[in-house]
């Protein structure tokens, strides 16, 4: 890695940190993201019986996306791998790069993890999270 790549990386990280001061995310992130990962843009819509999240993951293949869910957190991780190879008479150049997206989002309500569905199309990941049905039935209590 040359010095200019390192300076660009530091500048991008500082730009990201300062921009997060002036913008309010839809839902706060939880945890620490891995090195060289960016937070994808995320929209969250409450449709009554389900939550729908859309995350922008441009340049990522569907096979490189991981989605994990536990009782109160959804985590999206996507990796981008880059390999540049140039071979000419007298020299060989090869560069590898790894980057991607990572976001861990606390869920505002309990969801049914067995019924979560995800679709990926044109760089947009859409996750449908059905809410847990908390039907409350009235019941008379007999006093003894």
Number of DSSP-assigned strands: 8
CATH class division: Mainly Beta
The largest beta-sheet arranges its strands as 1-6-5-4
Using only CA atoms, what is the Rg? 21 Å
Q: How does this structure look, described?
A:
- β2 and β3 form a beta hairpin.
- This protein starts with a helix and ends in a 14-residue tail after the last strand.
- Strands 1-6-5-4 form a 4-stranded mixed sheet, with no helix packed on it. A 4-stranded antiparallel sheet has the order 2-3-8-7, with no helix packed on it.
- The protein has one helix spanning 3-22, and strands at residues 37-38, 42-46, 50-56, 65-69, 73-88, 91-106, 117-121, 124-130.
- The protein is mostly beta strands and 144 residues long.
What labels would you give this structure?
144 residues, mainly beta, four-stranded mixed sheet, four-stranded antiparallel sheet
Question: What layout of secondary structure does this protein have?
Answer:
Layout: H1 3-22, E1 37-38, E2 42-46, E3 50-56, E4 65-69, E5 73-88, E6 91-106, E7 117-121, E8 124-130
Parallel strand pairs: 1-6
Antiparallel strand pairs: 2-3, 3-8, 4-5, 5-6, 7-8
């Amino acid at each position: 890695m040359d010095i200019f790549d390192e300076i660009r990386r530091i500048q991008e990280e500082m730009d990201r940190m300062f921009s997060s001061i002036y913008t309010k995310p839809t839902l706060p992130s939880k945890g620490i993201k891995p090195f060289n990962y960016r937070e994808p843009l995320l929209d969250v819509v409450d449709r009554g019986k389900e939550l729908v999240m859309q995350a922008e993951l441009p340049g990522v293949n569907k096979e490189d996306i991981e989605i994990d869910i536990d009782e109160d957190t959804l985590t999206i991780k996507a990796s981008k791998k880059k390999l540049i190879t140039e071979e000419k008479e007298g020299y060989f150049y090869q560069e590898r790069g790894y980057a991607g997206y990572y976001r861990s989002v606390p869920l505002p309500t309990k969801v049914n993890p067995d019924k979560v569905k995800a679709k990926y199309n044109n760089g947009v990941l859409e996750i449908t999270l059905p809410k847990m049905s908390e039907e409350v039935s009235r019941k008379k209590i007999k006093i003894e």
